[in-house]
Design goal:
The complex is a heterodimer of chains A (664) and B (216).
Chain A lengths: L2 H22 L3 H29 L3 E6 L6 E6 L1 H24 L9 H20 L3 H19 L6 H32 L4 H6 L4 H19 L8 H7 L2 H11 L1 H13 L5 H23 L4 H28 L3 H36 L10 H4 L1 H14 L6 H19 L2 H33 L6 H4 L6 H19 L1 H16 L5 H6 L2 H29 L25 H9 L3 H4 L1 E6 L10 E6 L2 H20 L8 H21 L1
Antiparallel strand pairs in A: 1-2, 3-4
Helix pairs in contact in A: 1-2, 1-4, 2-3, 2-4, 3-4, 3-10, 3-14, 3-20, 3-21, 4-5, 5-6, 5-10, 6-8, 6-9, 8-11, 9-10, 9-13, 10-14, 12-13, 12-18, 13-14, 13-17, 13-18, 14-16, 14-17, 14-20, 14-21, 16-18, 16-20, 17-18, 17-20, 21-23
Chain B lengths: L1 H20 L3 H23 L4 H29 L11 H20 L10 H20 L3 H20 L7 H29 L16
Helix pairs in contact in B: 1-2, 1-4, 1-5, 2-3, 2-6, 3-7, 4-5, 5-6, 6-7
The chains are: A mainly alpha (664), B mainly alpha (216).
Chain lengths: 664, 216
């Protein structure tokens, strides 16, 4: 089959799978099997098609007439689409398999078939989003993605907090979609058509280009979770089942990144201002995301804030790449853009891994509150090891994949700062310590998360009773963890997947020059260090085994420093671990603390609780929603519930219109 | 012929005023039936007695709106024992005044219509608008379900009357479709009214407000 047919067959097979899953109705197991098979089939087709484009470097596009107004059915693939298509479909497969295990305890519910159908619709519409070459088709697929993911988030719809969190997501995603519709409308009015080819050629004045960019930043940024449009992430991700959180956080929010990149490709050579704007908003998201992640007690909410952080890092790489491009530094631009694109894949992998393992832990313990978990590594060894691997990857520790992409972004920032002209150099020099700060705080945050959840003693009965989850859940975890290590250890090869897309974004045709100076050349040395680390670790393990050979091993409880009756509650908690880092920032983060200090020689009761409100909620969205509610409340008297009154409105409108016609 | 047309149109206008002021349901239904019969006759007068199209439309209107529907409504009146509209939302005097204002507005509007729509004269368009406004007025100001039904039917009379100015050009199928809609609508509403009565012992629509969302 030709690549065009392969690429279109992928979403088509997913939609067929969705219909079959829906027809399964209550039979949850069958519906899940259908989803797994359809997703795997689509992944094979889609990656084959993408591989063809990535290998040959020649994109394609086809166009067909469509009965919708202002629309043509245009689809196409270039390096960017090929990379994202392969990324979406490859990561959907483990999510589907994990989901089968995760939902197994629910048994056959009425919702099962529909839930799996929405899962496949979500994957299919994401695939269409990256293939679309027409504004209308793009928006339809975008909307399908938003609505399908909304229904997945509201899976546990019997819990009221899930319903309200899902509603926040629905509103947020539609505000973003409204900005995108406005962007396409404004752009298409100038171009005379909504086909991407026509938009690409449309001449844009400076001001119009800026308005389009800001609309794209709001629309795509709210999907990607860039601050301050990230408010839905920490609500929707904890509410959703974990395989959906993994798919949404790992894959779906990257559609916002794809949208920004597509926008930049279509709007021609970007002005330097866009680079500064992206760098700034990326740094804000990265620092803000990691700080608020540190403050969370809810494991899945913590992971959601880390998505904000990582999307920020990706956007910083994109911004730095565009700045280097405007400054004429091709090799630097390539390094930053390759880092940014590779971080998309890497974040998808390790965030999926973290949601799989974190979700397994919280499901087994029945709570997402880290203060009630602990000691799970001994009870759930595979899950615990997978979480640790994911934590190492997200903290950018070698030999995992996060290290490679952040290394590339650092390389872009450093070389840009050294080689760039004055202003660019100054801004990039400020960005480097910010990124370093983010890395350090992320390390602290995952030391806290993995330490509190997986080490120590269980802090509750439920945590003490946890058992390892089923192979449906552990196998996807292990495979994703291996993929994390694999990308880190074979980075020069992974670079070849992202290079075509980065070349398109950097506006250059050949990557020979940069590859030796900043690309695969130095990267192989870095990867070699990762291999060395593995080898050294292997030797040390072997040496340990040799030394212990033939000696008796005994296990004993940790020395309790003389306490007669230590309890699990005497351990470091998540809050106390983060406190030294957050205390100096309390002016900035404004925690709401409630404490009752112990009094007297024999204190009876003492308590402490802390809560950190998201500043975007506090300063932007809550006041806006209050205002909206007050305005809407003013209209409430119009709803009288009486037929006559409603008819009176019709009559009055009619009479007013007639009077206007008569008097005008 | 024109004097006949004008006479019927004046009768239609006067019936509008009668409908807006009467409190007795039987008078309301009879007034509507007479108005419908007049309009059916008007269709023949305007289109000419040799047009097969006009005969079908006039015959259908007469059979359904002047005979069948009033028959059903009368039966509903007898069964539900609701002979008078006792609690209108505005008094009958005000109602009459509003209807008269509506007639004024209708004439003002008719005078501004494009020539195309005034093919059959100024009066017919004015009568059409006045009848529509009267129908809406009945819908808004009365509380008995039966009066509401008559309000819809009077509104439809006005629409039909306006359609007459375009009769030659309106396809027969559309006319028949509208008539059928009205008939089925009235039939269903008759049954609903009877069932409301059986369930609640009255047919007061203003009591049907449970669907309103409560204050939070």
């Amino acid at each position: 089959m030709n690549p065009e047919a392969l690429a279109l067959a992928a979403p088509a097979s997913l939609l067929i799978g969705a219909a079959v899953s829906l027809a399964c109705g209550k039979r949850s197991g069958v519906a899940a099997w259908v989803a797994i098979l359809a997703t795997s089939f689509a992944a094979v087709l889609g990656t084959a098609s993408a591989a063809n484009v990535l290998r040959s470097g020649a994109g394609w596009s086809i166009e067909a007439a469509w009965s919708l107004p202002w629309a043509t059915f245009s689809v196409g693939m270039d390096g960017l689409s090929a990379y994202f298509l392969a990324f979406i479909l490859a990561l959907a497969v483990p999510a589907a398999a994990y989901g089968k295990g995760y939902l197994a305890h629910e048994g056959d519910s009425r919702w099962a078939g529909a839930s799996w159908a929405f899962f496949q619709i979500l994957v299919a519409s994401m695939a269409v989003v990256v293939l679309a070459r027409d504004g209308v088709l793009f928006l339809i697929a975008w909307e399908g993605m938003s609505v399908a993911s909304f229904f997945l988030v509201i899976h546990d719809h019997r819990r009221p907090e899930v319903r309200s969190d899902a509603l926040v997501y629905l509103v947020a995603t539609h505000l973003g979609a409204a900005a995108l519709a406005a962007m396409f409308g404004l752009w298409g009015r100038g171009a005379g058509s909504l086909a991407f080819a026509a938009l690409q050629g449309a001449p844009l004045s400076r001001n119009v280009a800026w308005v389009l960019f800001l609309l794209a930043l709001v629309g795509f940024g709210s999907k990607a979770g860039l601050a301050p449009f990230h408010v839905w992430l920490p609500k929707a991700h904890p509410a959703a089942p974990s395989h959906v959180s993994a798919l949404m956080s790992g894959v779906m929010i990257k559609m916002g990144i794809y949208g920004l990149m597509r926008f930049i490709l279509m709007s021609g050579p970007p002005p330097a201002g866009w680079g500064y704007a992206l760098l700034g908003i990326g740094a804000l998201s990265a620092v803000g995301g990691v700080l608020y992640a540190l403050a969370q007690h809810d494991l899945k909410r913590l992971l959601a804030y880390h998505s904000v952080e990582n999307v920020g890092i990706i956007t910083m790489g994109l911004g730095a790449g565009l700045l280097a491009r405007t400054a004429g530094l091709e090799a630097v631009a390539m390094a930053a853009l390759c880092g940014s694109l590779l971080h998309v894949l890497n974040h998808g992998l390790f965030k999926s891994l973290l949601f799989y393992s974190g979700g397994a832990a919280t499901q087994a313990a029945g709570t997402r509150n880290m203060e009630r978990l602990g000691g799970l590594l001994r009870r759930m060894p595979v899950t615990g090891a997978a979480f640790l691997a994911g934590a190492a990857a997200i903290c950018a520790l070698p030999p995992f994949n996060g290290f490679v992409s952040e290394w590339l972004i650092y390389s872009g920032l450093f070389n840009g700062a050294l080689q760039g002209p004055g202003a660019v150099s100054a801004v990039l020099f400020v960005t480097i310590p910010l990124l370093a700060l983010v890395g350090g705080l992320a390390l602290a945050c995952f030391a806290k998360a993995s330490g509190v959840v997986f080490l120590g003693e269980p802090r509750s009965e439920e945590a003490a009773r946890c058992k390892e989850v089923s192979p449906w859940m552990t196998v996807p975890m292990v495979l994703t963890a291996l993929a994390c290590a694999g990308v880190g250890l074979a980075a020069p090869w992974a670079l070849r997947i992202v290079a075509p897309a980065a070349r398109e974004l950097a506006g250059i045709s050949s990557n020979a020059a940069w590859n030796t100076s900043l690309g695969a050349g130095p990267l192989s040395a870095v990867v070699l260090a990762g291999w060395m680390l593995l080898i050294v670790a292997g030797i040390m393990l072997g040496f340990r085994r040799l030394l212990l050979k033939g000696k008796a091993l005994s296990e004993a409880p940790t020395w309790g420093c003389g306490y007669a009756a230590p309890t699990a509650r005497m351990q470091y908690t998540a809050s106390s671990f983060a406190q030294p880092l957050l205390e100096p920032l309390s002016r900035l983060m404004r925690p709401s603390l409630r404490k009752r200090r112990p009094k007297g020689i024999f204190p009876e009761r003492a308590s402490f609780s802390s809560h950190y409100d998201d500043p975007a909620d506090r300063t932007i969205f809550d006041p806006a929603i209050t205002l909206l509610e007050r305005l809407a409340g003013a209209l409430r008297p119009l709803q009288q519930g009486r037929l006559q009154v409603y008819l009176l409105y019709v009559l009055l409108t009619l009479v007013a219109l007639i009077a206007w016609e008569v008097l005008a | 012929m024109s004097s006949w047309v004008n006479a019927i149109l004046v009768a239609v206008l006067l019936l509008d005023l009668l409908l807006s002021v009467t409190s007795r349901l039987s008078v309301l239904i009879r007034g509507f039936a007479v108005q419908a019969a007049g309009i059916a006759f008007l269709a023949l007068l305007i289109e000419g007695f040799d047009s097969r199209h006009a005969w079908i439309v006039a015959g259908g209107t007469l059979a359904l709106k002047a005979v069948a529907i009033p028959y059903f409504l009368n039966r509903a009146v007898i069964r539900t024992n609701a002979r008078r509209e006792l609690e209108p939302l505005v008094s009958y005097g005000t109602s009459l005044l509003l209807a008269a204002l509506g007639v004024l507005l209708a004439f003002a509007l008719a005078a501004r219509l494009p020539m195309e729509a005034r093919r059959a004269g100024l009066l017919i368009a004015a009568a059409a608008f006045a009848t529509m406004i009267t129908g809406l007025l009945l819908l808004v100001t009365r509380t008995k379900a039966l009066t509401e039904v008559v309000g819809y039917l009077v509104l439809e009379n006005g629409i039909f009357l306006f359609g007459l100015t375009l009769l030659g050009r309106m396809p027969l199928l559309v006319e028949m479709g509208i008539l059928l809609d009205v008939f089925v609508g009235a039939f269903v509403m008759g049954i609903v009214v009877y069932n409301i009565h059986r369930t609640f012992d009255h047919i007061d629509v203003s009591a049907l407000t449970t669907l309103k969302e409560d204050e939070p």
